[in-house]
Write a structure and sequence with these properties.
about 290 residues, 12 strands, alpha/beta
Length: about 290
Amino acid sequence: MSVRRPAVSGQFYESSSDALVRQIEWCFLHNLGPQAIPKAEASPERVSLGFVVPHAGYMYSGPAAAHAYYALSMERKPKTIVLIGPNHTGVGPSVSVYPEGHWETPLGRVPVDSELAKLIVGSSRFARLDTTAHEHEHSIEVQIPFLQYVLKHDFTIVPITILNQTPRVAEDLAKSILSAIQLSKRDPQDVVVIASSDLTHYEPHDIAYRKDKLVIERIVQLDPDGLFRVVVEKDISMCGPGSTMTLIYFAKALNSGGARLLKYFTSGDITGEKSWVVGYAAIQVLR
């Protein structure tokens, strides 16, 4: 069985297990984070279908991501996490689904749900089983230590990267994930979808804030076509519209109860340098 080794350990997050745990806890306790360490599972119910979560270095976007993972910690633990992120490297097929094996971080290894991965590919016009797109991609990798911290080791993952980020591809992938869950005869409440995306890149804080507000409005209203339209028309450099649209289409197919913004800030709120920022949001999509 293959093992996907860390590509950005020591860059986006700490490379030793002890230092990484301290860094994750710093994200939770940060004044822009939830300001609390997750405790034991608080509810027997599953509240969320999924989350939109950023994927920059923990020192920049970690406190925003911590809001999503804190919310996840308050619910019944899912058994499988479908992790969808943008393909930054340009390598691989239109939609790349990691087929089998494990993903490794300094906190240990997480198994890939090969059954669900293969069923997703079998139901999709665009998805292919592939490892090459994942070798150097960070958008999924940086989510896994947070999941290990919150869920410990009792979960599996299905890593998916999207190169062709269009509504047609996103809707197809969403339908394929739902079909795979049904074909595998699983309880949909045992599966959570995490869409990995940063928002506006490298613009002044005030401009990024205005642009990202438009994006967040469309996400919270569960409007995937409107999201794509505003990203194109307003020239918004959101890197994960495909993963986010997939989550929204998936939520709409399951008659989601809506979505809510958990936290938004820019890198300028972390560093104080506001002339050249990246926007980060954590958004919860409800059942």
